[in-house]
């Protein structure tokens, strides 16, 4: 174990921002020390409530996140914020717009804010996001808010990492329909019609409720996503949103679903690490020669691609990492 890892982890757990930042940078860079970091952090993880916020660009995710941070802070909770942008190659620090919205929180020791882009390592965000969450969780955050931009597949996957997912919509953007197409409604635990100060909020609420009633019939003990209205820029409705989040958490606990979600999250995390490791080892195997040799035999018609893949997997698993 590299000598200072236990120290960095200890300081991160004491709330030292620079140490938390170092650990998340290690995740972003897929640093070899991560194995030790995760071994040290994992016994301390599992405490944080993870809330995902997703929705189309500009609906007010960052503004809502900032308002939630204020509310949780006045309740004395330690808060982590992870802004994930699958479409942006930029990472590190906070994105410019978010920095402005988060300004009042950047000097608060009880808040840790970080953004991550899509660039980098082999495994992508599916690999990095759960590990970044593990760092924030292990570092003692009570709540971690994960903001993801957009309504595409990547966002759905990242949203599904959360204990509770809030889908934000705004009046008159037609994004309710877009969201339905993108399958994001399946991940919504709470709907937030933000910008409720604008015309069309009632229509948006009605559309969502109608869409839910059209869905598959649910068992009576199923969770029915509440629809909250907010004007995040003025802090209005944020208390309702907090109550909806708390109600969902209570349901997760009483129904046993919290454990199920966490297992699913851990499964994703383990799988992403394993698949990425496998890929790395295929590349490492005799300097990538084995794959090249197998490919040659497939081209020559001497081996079918399935048999070649079997040989490759056998080669990887019989060699030590
Ligand atoms: N009228 C009104 N404007 C709002 C409200 N909430 C946020 N805004 C404004 O909407 C704009 C976008 O807000 P953001 O919080 O940056 O939205 P976002 O969803 O994080 O945007 P991206 O991260 O770029 O996808 C900003 O100018 C906000 O001030 C609201 O409730 N009402
Ligand atoms: Mg934002």
Outline the structure in words.
With 321 residues, this protein is α/β, with parallel strands linked by helices. Helix content is 51%, strand content 12%. The protein has 13 helices and 7 strands. The chain has helices spanning 5-13, 17-28, 34-41, 61-74, 96-101, 124-138, 153-159, 175-181, 201-214, 238-255, 257-284, 289-299, 305-318; strands at 49-55, 79-84, 111-116, 143-149, 164-169, 190-193, 227-229. It has a 7-stranded parallel sheet, sandwiched between helices. Helix 2 (17-28) runs antiparallel to helix 6, helix 6 crosses helix 11 (257-284) and helix 12 (289-299) runs antiparallel to helix 13. The longest helix has 28 residues, at 257-284. 39% of the residues are buried. The site of magnesium ion has 4 residues, from helix 4.
Strand order of the largest sheet: 3-2-4-1-5-6-7
What is the terminal separation in angstroms?
A: 16 Å
Taking pLDDT < 50 over at least 5 consecutive residues as the criterion, the unreliable ranges are 91-97
Q: What is the helix/strand order?
A: HHHEHEHEHEHEHEHEHHHH
Fraction of residues in H or I helices: 40-55%
């Amino acid at each position: 174990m590299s000598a200072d890892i236990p120290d960095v982890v200890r300081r991160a757990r004491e709330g030292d921002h620079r140490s938390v930042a170092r650990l998340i940078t290690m995740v972003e860079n897929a640093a070899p020390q991560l194995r030790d970091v995760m071994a040290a952090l994992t016994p301390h993880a599992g405490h944080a409530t993870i809330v995902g916020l997703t929705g189309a660009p500009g609906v007010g995710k960052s503004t809502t996140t900032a308002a939630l941070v204020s509310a949780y802070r006045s309740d004395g909770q330690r808060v982590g914020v992870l802004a994930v942008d699958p479409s942006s190659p930029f990472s590190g620090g906070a994105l410019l717009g978010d920095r402005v919205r988060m300004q009042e929180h950047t000097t608060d020791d009880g808040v840790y804010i970080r953004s991550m882009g899509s660039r980098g390592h082999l495994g992508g965000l599916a690999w990095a996001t759960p590990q970044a969450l593990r760092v924030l969780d292990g570092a003692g955050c009570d709540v971690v808010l994960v903001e993801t931009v957009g309504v595409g597949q990547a966002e759905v996957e990242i949203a599904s990492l959360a204990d509770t997912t809030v889908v934000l919509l705004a009046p008159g953007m037609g994004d309710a329909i877009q969201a339905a197409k993108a399958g994001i409604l399946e991940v919504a635990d709470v709907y937030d019609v933000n910008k409720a100060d604008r015309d069309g909020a009632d229509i948006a609420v009605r559309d969502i409720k109608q869409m839910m009633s059209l869905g598959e019939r649910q068992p009576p003990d199923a969770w029915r996503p509440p629809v909250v209205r907010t004007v995040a820029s003025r802090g209005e409705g944020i208390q309702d949103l907090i109550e909806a989040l708390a109600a969902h958490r209570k349901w997760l606990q009483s129904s046993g679903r919290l454990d199920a979600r966490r297992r699913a999250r851990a499964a994703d995390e383990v799988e992403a690490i394993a698949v990425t490791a496998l890929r790395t080892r295929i590349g490492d195997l005799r300097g990538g020669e084995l794959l090249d040799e197998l490919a040659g035999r497939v081209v020559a018609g001497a081996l079918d691609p399935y048999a070649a893949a079997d040989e490759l997997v056998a080669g990887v698993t019989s060699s030590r990492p």
